[in-house]
Structure prediction request, 336 residues.
Amino acid sequence: MLSYTRTIHTVDAHTGGEPLRIVISGLPPVPGKTILERRSWLKAQRDDVRQFLMNEPRGHADMYGAYLLPPVTPAADFGVIFIHNEGYSDMCGHGIIALGKVLVELNHVERSVPLTRIGFDTPAGFIEAQVEWDGQRAGAVTFRNVPAFIYRRDVEVETPSFGKVTGDIVFGGAFYYYMNADQAGVKIKPEQVRSLIQLGAETKQAVKDQVAIQHPLEPGLDTLYGTIIDGAPNDPGADQANVCIFADREVDRSPTGTGTSGRAAQLFLRQKLALDQVLVNESIVGSCFRVRVTGTAKVGEFDAALTEVTGNAHIMGFNQWVLEDSDPFPQGFFLR
Prediction:
């Protein structure tokens, strides 16, 4: 008779091609008064659950996931912690879009026509999402992100394979290094993904070696998450294309929600995007997000932009993951 030492139920969705494995049951109780405290506890005490769900053979090197938790602020309906191949995210826009779709589609929130509001407590702060609901199906999801700002402008670094490149360090819910693909002689195309991964990994390490990042308000958000490389779009309806290389050389298939937010803020603060002007951002697989700057704010000493990002997600499956007591790979592995 089979014996299982763990059972976890998930809903698997994708946003613009980027997966989100949402844990709906099977997670142990997570202590902590804040989402950052809960994330720290999970990292220290139950990282085996993340590895179980993200690593092979149940996941893969580009898998992404989310834990739904009780909220910690009055305006929120849920707390959420995002997971990936290396650890835990500060915020995730494609994840918020997928969560909005799933929670409304599956009737896990009180639905209203034409829009259903859902509030999320994330490590980066409070996020509000509006999900289109016509009484039958959930549609596009728009989220209002935490304020985004340019942390350092015109940061030049030396890379082993691509020489010198220059970009901005921007916070859009997580810190990214933004650079243009032309500097490295690459394009945002699937056939160049290996070169893009190499470029992203090398620039991330070079920036980390050169710049000490410190969030002005929250020391728990002091990590450079990845590199965002922008270039010419392939879709004539898009204004630009980009790819995000994050965590341990993970490739975002979506346009990246926090990255799109940060890009809009970067352009706005450099006076290259007007207030309420819509920017259409294309991913490496051709999916698009829409973003606009809706206002301004301050984050410590930094001028910041308030943004709204819109995208679509789709449900892929309903899964029950089990750990057989004799399984030799309870925490999985990566074999790229």
Observations:
- The mean pLDDT is 97.
- The domain at 4-144+315-324 is CATH 3.10.310.10 (Diaminopimelate Epimerase; Chain A, domain 1).
